[in-house]
Amino acid sequence: MRRYNAANERLKRCYEQYLREAKGQDDKSIDKVRAALVKFEESTKFKPFRAFRIDQARQFKDALSRAKTTKGKPLSLTTTDATLRLVKGFFHWLAGQQGFKKVLSYADVEYFNNNRKDARAAHAQRPVHFPSKQAAYHAFQAMVDRTELERRDKAMFAFVMITGARVAAVASLRLKHINLVDGLVHQDGREVQTKGGKTITTWFFPMHPQYLVCFTNWVTFLRNDKMFGQEDALFPRPERRLVNGKFAFDTLSRRNYANGAKVNEVFRGAFEQVQMHPYGAHSARKTLGQELSDRNLPLATQKAWSQNLGHERFTTTVSNYLPVSTQQQGELIKGLDQGKIPHN
Questions:
Q1: Stated pTM of the model
Q2: Most Cβ neighbours (<10 Å): which of 97, 207, 227, 281?
Q3: Backbone torsions φ then ψ of 174, nearest 5 degrees
Q4: According to CATH, what is the number of the domain 133-286?
Q5: 302-329 pLDDT per residue, tens
């Protein structure tokens, strides 16, 4: 059973309320803060926050450097840096609270800073792995669609490839959010689990036409054959029923999945069955980013493509979803000296 300090718990609840109501953070983000603060408390043997000394920050860094993952490996630089920043954020808030201004200064909080070398390494851009559009279509073609659940999975894969929707959003969509006439999905932030509760209207991307055929057939099947209504799930979880004295999950319910885990499972499984790298569903957004780059579109169309991914700023798409590998970097720079761009 984990130890705890009652006074610390009260302060943490106040901070969580501040993050939720003043900073607008969601439960997932707050859970990360909770976990980081527990790690700090473990390093101090749950001493009260009021008794903070700067040597505790040093001890915490040492504890993180020695910590292991569940697989027995050292914590990554990214995890260590993120943990330090979360704990620092808490103590920065605490330094401004009544009763702490004399025992904790903002200068003391700076001792939670990571060293520059590790911080730089933690935020360094790494090679981005994502499927080519040819690889994705190959995996899609190999997916079987004999049963209702298999048809659902294949339609789910197709939908991700023509929308780039995030897994949580895909799992929470209902039929009312789909407009086949205009070719779009309306991700209503009040009802769909979008990032930051943002409302996003996404027109289907012009990827391989069979994706749209598959998805359209699925929606038609739900509406006409299964008699699903507007409030029913787009990609429903299976219905549990009793068959010969045993529970079976071989037909559709009308309920959504609680999270996007199933979407990732389906996406990875499609690639694994053709002996390819098990790409996650989020990697499809990078595939769509690469398609944007390959098409050499006018600037206004590039901006529309970016908005279709749910980005308010085109720079977000360029930074996160238009990867340039080291090899491509070299090819592009060498191409400058081959008459493609005139010298001054």
A1: 0.72
A2: 281
A3: -120, 165
A4: 1.10.443.10
A5: 889 999 988 888 877 777 767 666 666 6
